[in-house]
């Protein structure tokens, strides 16, 4: 075997080492060049998705804040008007007055039922929202100068809604309203019942103390169309809708969104305000959510009078 000089071996090893270093640098360069591009693409998609979600949440919060601001303003006006006519009372006295007023309503007040027979088709989230709406409805009735005699019909003690109302609403079982498993047909004559549904053809003109008004216990997330109208058909009772078409017009908005579907407590607040003012335009202006895409028409007709039976 021929003897290879050590200088030659050293030079060969140096060459191999330099080649490996070049290969290593190229591989690292490839990794460095590819990695930032992929990360930027993923980052940009994530940023856009988060920005869209943030914009949607911001728009929803803005609409809710505007609605709550209108409600607080109306409450302040009502409270200031009441304080101007009445002396200031302690909380205990005010509580006693409220209780007395609700007790009187259960004897002489106009009757309103919330039909809770359709809760089986609702999700747990919708059940929770409905329980919250019932709490707000009762809170509005407590503040009203002329409260309704309230009924929660078709509410079974073994139902999800009953359990959720007890869980979410403090003192629910002590609410001054009638809670029953019976339907409105079991409690009142058919000819006295008016079922309020956004799909009804007839517009409600006034609130009559001789009639019984029924609201369908549903929430905005319910996708099934005409559910309350179909329920009224099953009961074979008269239907009516709030006079939205008669007193309101569509307004332009970016999403071209218009809806007449309201929460149970929103419909109730509109009825209460109408009974107090005799004006549908005032009631709709105060309580119809601006995010629904409607505004009160500027050239609306004069307020409809409240029937004398309410006095």
Automatic annotation (TrEMBL):
Coiled coil is among the record's keywords: yes
GO molecular function: tRNA (guanosine(9)-N1)-methyltransferase activity; tRNA binding
Name this polypeptide is given: tRNA methyltransferase 10 homolog B
One Gene Ontology cellular component annotation held by this UniProt entry: nucleoplasm
Domain spans labelled SAM-dependent MTase TRM10-type: 98-295
Basic and acidic residues bias (residue ranges): 65-79
Keywords: Coiled coil, Methyltransferase, S-adenosyl-L-methionine, Transferase
Provenance organism: Seriola lalandi dorsalis
Catalyzed reactions per annotation: guanosine(9) in tRNA + S-adenosyl-L-methionine = N(1)-methylguanosine(9) in tRNA + S-adenosyl-L-homocysteine + H(+)
The keyword S-adenosyl-L-methionine is assigned to this record: yes
């Amino acid at each position: 075997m021929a003897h290879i000089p050590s200088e030659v071996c050293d030079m060969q090893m140096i060459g191999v080492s330099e080649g490996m270093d070049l290969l290593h640098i190229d591989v690292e360069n490839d990794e460095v060049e590819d990695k930032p591009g992929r990360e930027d693409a993923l980052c940009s998609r994530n940023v856009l998705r988060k920005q869209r979600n943030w914009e949607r949440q911001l728009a929803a919060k803005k609409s809710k804040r505007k609605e709550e601001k209108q409600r607080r303003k109306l409450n302040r006006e009502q409270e200031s008007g009441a304080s101007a006519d009445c002396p200031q009372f302690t909380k205990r006295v005010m509580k006693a007055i409220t209780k007395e007023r609700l007790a009187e309503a259960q004897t002489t007040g106009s009757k309103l039922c919330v039909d809770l027979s359709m809760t089986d088709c609702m999700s747990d989230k919708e059940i929770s929202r409905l329980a919250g709406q019932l709490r707000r409805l009762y809170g509005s009735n407590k503040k009203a100068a002329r409260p309704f005699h309230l009924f929660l019909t078709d509410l079974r003690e073994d139902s999800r809604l009953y359990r959720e109302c007890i869980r979410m609403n403090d003192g629910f079982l002590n609410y001054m309203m009638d809670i029953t498993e019976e339907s409105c047909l079991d409690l009142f004559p058919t000819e006295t019942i008016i079922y309020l549904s956004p799909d009804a053809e007839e517009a409600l003109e006034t609130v009559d103390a001789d009639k019984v008004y029924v609201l369908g216990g549903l929430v905005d997330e319910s996708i099934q169309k005409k559910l309350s109208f179909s329920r009224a058909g099953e009961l074979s009772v008269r239907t009516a809708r709030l006079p939205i078409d008669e007193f309101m017009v569509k307004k332009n908005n970016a999403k071209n969104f218009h809806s007449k579907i309201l929460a149970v407590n929103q419909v109730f607040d509109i009825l209460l305000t109408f009974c107090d003012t005799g004006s549908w335009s005032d009631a709709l202006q105060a309580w119809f959510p601006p995010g629904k895409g409607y505004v009160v028409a500027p050239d609306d007709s004069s307020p409809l009078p409240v029937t004398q039976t309410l006095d």
